[in-house]
Amino acid sequence: MSYAGNLGLDSGAPQSVYQLNTAAMRRLPIAPRPLVPGQSIKLPNGAGSVTFTGYRQWISVQVTYDPGRFPALVSAMVAVAGLLLSFLVRRRRLFVRVRQAGEKGEAGEALTEVEVGGLARSEDAEPEVAVPEVAVPEVAVPEVAVPEVAVPAHEPMTHDDRMW
How many beta carbons lie within 10 A of that of residue 123, not counting itself? Predict the structure, then answer.
């Protein structure tokens, strides 16, 4: 199809280069036909002619430099590795309490009592695996006198004194 008229290029309004706005144009009575390089078509009413002179092939190349791409890739890989590792590690908690025993040893020295407890955080955990056997040697701990420190009395904290 062929059209004639004002394209409105002098108005300054932006236009698409891929679509022709034919609202203010009229259609020419010319049968559409493909042209090969060097062929011409005469326009009606002595408006001239259109000659297809040929075409040139071209490409568009964009070169970019993004220095943050590699650190972002490494960070993402470390995050995925950490996530996969969290699926493989069994969740357990181990509690250790060390306190001075109320009884004395054979030589009259104070004894220290060590208690170990564990909590498995999964359904299929075995208690033997959750709390390993720990061999704690019996060590004599000398008694240390702890001086009493006088602590001054404080007024109770009000709502405004607390840090949230």
Answer: 5
Return d(Cα 97, Cα 116) in angstroms, integer: 7
Sketch the domain layout of the chain as residue ranges.
Answer: 3-51, 92-130
Q: Is the dihedral of CA 141, 145, 150, 153 positive or negative?
A: positive
**Threshold 0.70, pTM exceeds:** no
Give per-residue pLDDT as tens, 49-89.
889 999 888 899 999 999 999 999 999 999 999 999 988 87
Query: Residue 125: which residues within 8 A CB-CB, separation 6 or more?
Result: 90, 92
Q: What is the DSSP string of 67-136?
A: TTHHHHHHHHHHHHHHHHHHHHSPPEEEEEEEEEEEEE-TTSPEEEEEEEEEEE-STT--HHHHS-----
